[in-house]
Amino acid sequence: MTIGVPAGENGYGDAPTAPLVEGPVLDERGWGPGGLASQWTAPPRRLRRRLRRALIVLMSLALAVTVAFITALLLTPSVSNAPALVRSFDLAHHVAYPGAPVPPRFAAALVSTEDHRFYSEPGIDPFAIGRVIRGRITGQPDQGGATLYQQLAKMLYTPGRSGVLVELEQVMLGIKLELSYPKAEILQLYADVAYFGHGYYGLAQASCGYFGVTSSALSWPQAAMLAGVVQAPSADNPLTHYGVARAREAHVLGRLVATGTLTQAQASQAYRQTLHLAGGPGTGCNA
Questions:
Q1: Domain at 57-272, CATH class
Q2: Is the pTM of this model over 0.85?
Q3: What secondary structure, in 3-state letters, does the chain show?
């Protein structure tokens, strides 16, 4: 007697076909065969929770930093009196106010060595601040992170003061200065109030005192030397520390090359020029 074989789903006598499986079989972690995760698998629930928590923490920190920044900005004094402070400072040191317009050579030399992002930054240089923080953590020498805005704020609003809170105040004041005055006026205020050593206050006095020329007649080596002096006016005084001042001049000329203002050949030629120091006001200029 013939025993019948049950027909399969396809209507024939074959065994039932296996159910169709879409994609690899995944375990409870969402991992497939061989330990590889399917690209279509959603992140595990635990990972999603961690990501949400990290996002909340980051948003909270950003909010706290924003609130602290706005609070510090509101607590710092106004900078609307900056020109008046410069005027009082200049009168006290027998300097004509306002001084002559800042010549392009000195402006380029100063910006290249003191704050090469001056024309694009918002009064603060995050890269320089990060470099200073890293240096303090690692114990490396302070490479300087103050923008020209912060340096001007220090000269006008916090002279003789130091400390972390004072530096924070200078940062806030620097931002306010950037928001309140055009770049050209910031350079003008800076040049009018900066100390260049040997009793010379302001660019006009320093140009006449050191070289016997007006600031508009400064050569590249003269402008580079004066821009180098402002960092340490007593230590870099060319009349008493000529070798140090020349080293600073070479540094500034190198920065002018790095920023594309001068070629290496032009900088080398400028450094070879003889600097005739006057040591007092010249006959052809009025400080």
A1: mainly alpha
A2: no
A3: CCCCCCCCCCCCCCCCCCCCCCCCCCCCCCECHHHCECCCCCCCHHHHHHHHHHHHHHHHHHHHHHHHHHHHHHHCCCCCCHHHHHHHHHHHCCCCCCCCCCCHHHHHHHHHHHCCCCCCCCCCCHHHHHHHHHHHHHCCCCCCCCCHHHHHHHHHHCCCCCCHHHHHHHHHHHHHHHHHCCHHHHHHHHHHHCECCCCCEHHHHHHHHHHCCCHHHCCHHHHHHHHHHCCCCCCCCCCCCHHHHHHHHHHHHHHHHHCCCCCHHHHHHHHHCCCCCCCCCCCCCCC
